[in-house]
Amino acid sequence: MPIRIPENLPAQNVLLGENIFTMDSQRAASQDIRPMEVAILNLMPNKIETEVQLLRLLSNTPLQINVDLIRINDLAPKHTPQSHMDAFYHDFNDVADKRYDGLIVTGAPLALLDYEDVNYWDTMKTILEWANRNVQSTLYLCWAAHAAMYHFYGIQRKLRDVKLSGVYHHQVKDPHNELLRGFDPEFYAPHSRYGYINTDEYESIEGVKVIAESEEAGAYVVASDDKRMVFITGHPEYDPETLADEYQRDVQAGLNPNIPCNYFPGDDPTQSPLVRWRSHGSLLFTNWINYYVYQTTPYDLNQLVEKNQHKR
């Protein structure tokens, strides 16, 4: 089954060009099934690029998914036209009374800022609490994963002196966890961040487990036992060239960045990147949608509030 996205969203043409099945609202209206309702809170500056990356991963499921794009405020970021934001994004206040099967909260380029200094932190806290009441399962990516750990559990991330950037080797710690069903015991995943939280800090939280990690990059997939929260510290959604684009951006800004690890053949930035994470990224999102969302969510989403009020 396809994902259902807003009609005329630019990502639709990109995905169709990759032979990925999408469906607009008019065609989806004829389907006599209950689709999954998934929201994406997109905090990345290049909204369109991130939309394509996430929608691509959500498309590999037999379920029909209705996708709502949510913005945290009405300001258009530098790399996205205001017209795009106005046409395709919902203000959070417009969906605050809605319930969702799943929510994805992206990373954000806020690595060196204290959470309390982020200009939308108060709104972010409101959304996190709203998700706890109105969403069956939430997937937090990179900065959002650390922000959610801070908000819900009071664990403050630490900062590296040098940015962690590259594609790192990981090990599955809990092969029986449904989120990692079908994974090889070892796999690769991209990271691009300064922040980190030690594995023992995650595991000090009752009902939270690190289920995949890396000797170099640390904890990667962290999940709550009730399947309601998943914390991904890397970027399984990244395109082949995303780390290269970030590296060239930092070079041009005079930041003298390190070459991303295990990414360019021979550590030569003139070479095409070696891509070895996309199958695991696709499987991770498919497992989340199937086992953490579809298999646990009530058919009537109005039951979510009653069900989840007793969780925390």
UniProtKB/TrEMBL annotation:
From the Swiss-Prot or TrEMBL record, state where the protein is found.
Cytoplasm
- Which residues does the entry assign to the active site, renumbered to this chain? C142 (acyl-thioester intermediate), H235 (proton acceptor), E237
What are the binding positions for substrate in this chain? Answer: K163, S192, R249
Q: Which CDD domains has this protein been placed in?
A: GATase1_HTS
Annotated site residues (Important for acyl-CoA specificity) in this chain: A111
Reaction catalysis annotation: L-homoserine + succinyl-CoA = O-succinyl-L-homoserine + CoA
Kindly give the InterPro entries that the UniProt entry links to this protein.
Class_I_gatase-like, HST_MetA, MetA_family
Point out the annotated site residues (description: Important for substrate specificity).
S192
Q: What is its main location?
A: cytoplasm
Which Enzyme Commission number(s) are listed?
2.3.1.46
Q: Mind telling me which GO cellular component terms the entry cites?
A: cytoplasm
Record's keyword annotation contains Magnesium: no
Q: Per the record's keyword annotation, is Transferase included, yes or no? A: yes
**Which keywords has UniProt assigned to this entry?**
Acyltransferase, Amino-acid biosynthesis, Cytoplasm, Methionine biosynthesis, Transferase
Pathway(s) served: Amino-acid biosynthesis; L-methionine biosynthesis via de novo pathway; O-succinyl-L-homoserine from L-homoserine: step 1/1
Family the entry assigns? Belongs to the MetA family.
Biological function: Transfers a succinyl group from succinyl-CoA to L-homoserine, forming succinyl-L-homoserine.
Q: What is the official name of this protein in its record?
A: Homoserine O-succinyltransferase
Which gene is this protein's source? metAS
